[in-house]
Design a protein that fits this description.
By secondary structure, the protein is an alpha/beta fold. Helices cover about 40% and strands about 20% of the residues. It starts with a helix and ends in a 14-residue tail after the last helix.
Amino acid sequence: MKTSFRPLVLAISIASAFAAPLASADVVKVAVIETLSGAFAPIGQNQLRSYQMVSDIAKQQKWAGDHTFDFVGFDNKGSPQESLTQLKAAIDQGYRYIAQGNSSAVAMALIDAVNKHNERNPGKEVVFLNHSAIDPDLTNSKCSFWHFRFDANSDMKMEALSSFMAKDQKIKNVYIIGQNYSHGHQVARAAKEMLKRKRPDIQIVGEDLHPIAQVKDFSPYVAKIKAAGADTVVTGNWGADLALLIKAAKDADLKANFYTYYGSTSGVPTAMGAAGADRVKYVGYWNANNEKYVGQDLIDAFKKKYNDDFYVVATYSVVSMMSRAIKESKSTDPVKVAFAMEGLTAKSLNGDIEMRKNDHQLQQPLYIATWVKAGGKDVKNDQENTGYGWKTDMKVDPFVASQPTSCDMKRPTKS
C-alpha cells in the first residue's frame, strides 16, 4: 500500500501544481455601454465586435497569461440617462470594467457615476475604459483616476489637422459645422483658435451647430456653406450626422474640401463614394493603409467574419494595455490594474503608445489621410466595398499633437 500510495500522491501533487494557474485564471468581464440600436448603431456594433475579436487574439496568444476577457454589449440607445441605467445593470451583474466612447456627453455622465459608486463602495471599484469620447475636459477639469482615454482628444486632433491645413495656401474660407453638444463645441473652438494662430489670413465664413442625431436632411446647411463661399469645411460630426452631411454635399455638387474627424467610420465611406475622392480628409490615430500595413491580418480576419471594416484601433490598445497591466500587477483587481496602467507604455497597431500618468490621456501617433481610388500600392484596403480608401498624407509623432493638461487627479490609497 505504501509503495503504491506515495507515487499516487506525488502524481496528484504534480498535477495540482500544473493546474494551479488555470484554476486561478480570471475572466475579466467588460461591459461595453454603447449605442447598439438606432441610427448610430453600426458604429457601436463595430466597436463591440472589434473588442471581441481582439480579445480572442489576446486569449490565443496569452497576452494576459491565463486570464481572458469577455466584452459584452449593453445598449444605451445613445442616451446619457439610459447609460446610467445600463451602468447600474452591469455593476449589479458583477462587472468591474466598463467601456464606452460614442458621445462625450455620455462619457461625462458615466465618469460622474463611476466616481460616486467607487467612493461609496470600496472594494467594488469600477474602471472606465474610454475608446472614443474626445472632449478635452474628460482628461482636464473632469479627469478621474478611474477613467482612461485611449483616443486622442479633439484638441490633439485639431493641433495635427490645423498644422496640416496651414501649409495649404489654397485654403482661404473655412466653414465650421458640428453637433450641438460638448464635442461639437470643443471642435469649433479649437478650429478657430488654432487656425487663427497658424494662418491668420484664413477667414471663418460661417459656423453651425445642429441637434445631434435629429437632422435627416442637411441640404439647408449645405446651401449656407455654398452661399458663404467656403472652399473648406471643418467638422467633428460622426455617425449618421456625418454620412448625411456628406451625402447632401454630394447631391448639391458642393466643391469644398472636407476636413473631418470621423470620415472613416461606418456609413460615411458609402455616402461619399466617388464624389468624395481627393476632397475628404480625416485625422485619426490609425489608417488601415499605413506605411507598413501593420494589422493587415486583423483587417482581413474582421472582414471575413463580419463583412465589415476594422478601424477602431483603440480596442486593440485597450486590450493590449490592460493585459500588460494585469501581468505587471499580477492581479485583475480594478484598483491594482488602474495603478499599473498609469505611465504604462506598449506597442499598438499605430506604434508606440503611452498612458500619461498625470491625466490618463493616451499619447500616440496620429494620421491624416485623403479619400482616394483604391488599388495602388499606397491604398491596398478600400472601405465598405466602395473601391475607395484612405491614402496617408502624414503620420504625426505623439509629441507634435500632445497638449498640456489642467488635471488635478485625486488617487485612492495604493495598497
